[in-house]
RNA sequence: GGCCCUAUCGUCUAACGGUUAGGACAUUAGCUUCUCAAGCUGGCAAUUCGGGUUCGAUUCCCGAUAGGGUCACCA
């Protein structure tokens, strides 16, 4: 066995979409491997014919690719039965395993013949790079089954054989595999093969501190992708779940992660998955994305009612990108905002009740009308190309100051948006343009008189 | 229940055996042009408990407690 090269693997079973925990394990393997110029292997563990599905394999591969965790080599256990058979026969021939006739547990009453390992019933001790020595008494394991028959290996046998054949140097996997390790070591010893290095990383936990399982809400990478998380944000967040650089730095590119990652800094205890923090990371990444890319993503998440309205056009959407950008954490928030009615008014005259034009303590709509008329006057005097937020503000500020900011600003903003909450009136006016702004102001006045 | 792993703010975490126990998210107050968002400034908030070892334990050891994982003819 060549020892010099670092070789790692992840071994997902295609019984579900790529799980967030598997993705994080893949990431740690990937970072460690790339840092050491090693090889990262993906091995699809599909020995269970009943539960393995091609669609899940496709999903796993697809999402790993989306995350940027490319593998150097892909294997499928279902294509390697001949190899396992050789090892099972060896074990049988050397008396380290035996055939056992017994009643099927799966199918009551059916007689079958399984392959069991002869357990030497000894204490097994192994070193875990992040946990130190771990000791087990394997007696309680009994003569466990390693294959359903000579052609159908079970998990433990297949894993041991593959890790050996593929020359895996470091097995970096979830903590839930600690208890599997002694079994696998027993098989290695029966086979007389070398032991790889073990690294058991902490689990990702749900809010109630239990292992994230498929039945929990959002556990597949696909779901996060669909909701509009950015892959780099997901990577960054997952890297910091259970690992830290030892400094206060939190934002990392994948290359920085490869550079700074270290197994020694991996945490021992499980980490709760915190969607709020992930959202924060996602915002940070959205900030860095180019206008074009943002535009594309926002448009994709716009509901049909907006896209299909006659007033819709890309120009306006482009203008409100900064406004939207500040209000979303993930792309699907665009849809949420739209559904709450906070986007319509950029495209068409909003409907609203006249009383809404009144600022808090004010009660006289006639004064509102008078003020709006005055504002229209100001606006008329601004040339089209100077109709910008800053300019508008400069021109009406003194007047607003004199009449009371709320009394002036609120009606403008409300006349333009028809909403109690919106961006400020200057921004709105700029987006809408001189003509539309003035038109909406006139509309408001007409409603009053 | 057996075996195994783990234990710092609500959450993710930092701290050669000596720090006012630090940062981030969340939260909270204030500021910033009316409302919102963003931004800025400040606040609240933790070493599970009990024994040791030590001049001195978040840190080392033991125990308790709590949480988690695992106990297949799944992986």
Automatic annotation (TrEMBL):
One of its GO terms (molecular function) is tRNA binding. InterPro entries: aa-tRNA-synth_I_cd-bd, aa-tRNA-synth_I_codon-bd_sub2, aa-tRNA-synth_I_CS, aa_tRNA-synth_I_cd-bd_sf, Glu-tRNA-ligase_bac/mito, Glu/Gln-tRNA-synth, Glu/Gln-tRNA-synth_Ib_cat-dom, GluQ/Sye. It comes from Candidatus Campbellbacteria bacterium RIFCSPLOWO2_02_35_12. It is an enzyme of class 6 (ligase). Belongs to the class-I aminoacyl-tRNA synthetase family. Glutamate--tRNA ligase type 1 subfamily. Its main location: cytoplasm. It comes from the Bacteria. It catalyses: tRNA(Glu) + L-glutamate + ATP = L-glutamyl-tRNA(Glu) + AMP + diphosphate. This is Glutamate--tRNA ligase. ATP binds at residue 214. Transmembrane segments: none annotated. Pfam families: Anticodon_2, tRNA-synt_1c. Residues 5-102, 103-280 form the Glutamyl/glutaminyl-tRNA synthetase class Ib catalytic domain. One of its GO terms (cellular component) is cytoplasm.
